[in-house]
User: Which sequence fits this backbone?
C-alpha cells in the first residue's frame, strides 16, 4: 500500500476511535443520570434541572398522607377542628378501628355520658344508680341518674329513661343547654331558620338559643320539621364543641 493511502487509513481509524469514545462517554453519563433518577424515585424524590443545577425535591410532603383526626375524618374535613378538640379532650373517642362514624345516631344514654364527660365527671359519679325503672347498674346508670338529679333529663310516663332510644335534635339541644346552664332566648334571632316555631313548644327557647350560639351552624337542613330527626355523632360533637369554646356557659357540675 502506498504511503499516502496508509496515512489516510490511519486518519480515518483515528476519527472512528474519537467518535466511539465520545459516544461511549455520552452513554455513561446518560446511564448515571438514569440511575440517579431511579434511585431518587425509589425514595420519593424527583430530579429537577434548574439552570444546570440538579435539585432533588422531596415528594413526601406533597404525596404523603394528610394528618388524620380519625380514620374516617381527615384534617381537611369541614369539622376537623371541632372533632380534633372533642378527641383531644377525651369527650368523644373513636371506635376500636379508629373511626369516628360521624353519621351514626346517638342514644339518650350516650348523649348524657358525652355531656357529663365534657363538663367534667364528679368524683362520685359511680354512686348514682337505680333511678329509673330501666336504669339500674348498667354502664350508663351513673350518667342517666346524675342527669336526672340535675334536671337535665326526665323519664317517660312509664317511669323509664329509655336509654337505648336515639335522641332527636331537639332533645340533644335541650339536654346540652340545660347542662351548661345557658341563658335561654325568648325569641328567634333575625333571619332565624326556626322563626316559625311557636313559643309554646317545649323546645322553642332551646332551639332559638342553640341557633344564636352557633350550635346548629354545621347541621344540614336546619328547618323546623327536621328538629325531630335523630341526632348524629357529628351533630352532637359540633354542638358540644360550640358550648365548650363559646366562653359564655356556666357548667353546673
Assistant:
Amino acid at each position: 500500500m502506498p504511503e499516502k493511502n496508509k496515512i489516510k487509513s490511519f486518519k480515518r481509524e483515528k476519527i472512528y476511535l474519537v467518535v466511539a469514545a465520545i459516544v461511549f462517554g455520552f452513554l455513561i453519563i446518560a446511564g448515571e443520570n438514569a440511575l440517579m433518577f431511579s434511585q431518587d424515585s425509589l425514595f420519593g424524590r424527583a430530579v429537577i434541572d434548574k439552570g444546570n443545577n440538579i435539585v432533588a425535591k422531596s415528594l413526601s410532603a406533597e404525596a404523603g398522607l394528610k394528618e388524620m383526626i380519625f380514620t374516617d375524618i381527615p384534617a381537611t374535613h369541614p369539622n376537623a377542628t371541632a372533632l380534633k378538640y372533642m378527641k383531644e379532650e377525651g369527650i368523644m373517642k373513636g371506635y376500636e378501628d379508629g373511626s369516628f362514624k360521624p353519621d351514626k345516631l346517638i342514644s339518650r344514654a350516650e348523649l348524657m355520658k358525652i355531656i357529663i364527660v365534657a363538663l367534667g365527671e364528679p368524683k362520685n359519679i359511680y354512686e348514682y344508680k337505680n333511678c329509673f325503672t330501666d336504669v339500674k347498674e348498667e354502664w350508663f346508670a351513673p350518667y342517666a341518674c346524675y342527669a336526672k338529679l340535675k334536671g337535665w333529663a326526665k323519664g317517660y310516663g312509664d317511669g323509664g329513661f329509655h336509654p337505648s332510644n336515639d335522641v332527636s335534635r331537639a332533645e340533644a339541644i335541650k339536654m346540652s343547654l340545660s347542662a351548661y346552664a345557658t341563658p335561654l332566648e325568648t325569641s328567634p334571632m333575625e333571619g332565624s331558620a326556626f322563626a316559625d316555631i311557636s313559643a309554646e313548644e317545649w323546645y322553642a327557647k332551646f332551639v332559638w338559643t342553640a341557633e344564636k350560639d352557633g350550635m346548629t351552624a354545621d347541621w344540614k337542613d336546619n328547618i323546623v320539621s327536621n328538629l325531630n330527626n335523630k341526632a348524629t355523632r357529628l351533630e352532637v360533637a359540633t354542638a358540644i364543641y360550640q358550648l365548650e369554646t363559646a366562653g359564655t356557659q356556666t357548667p353546673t357540675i
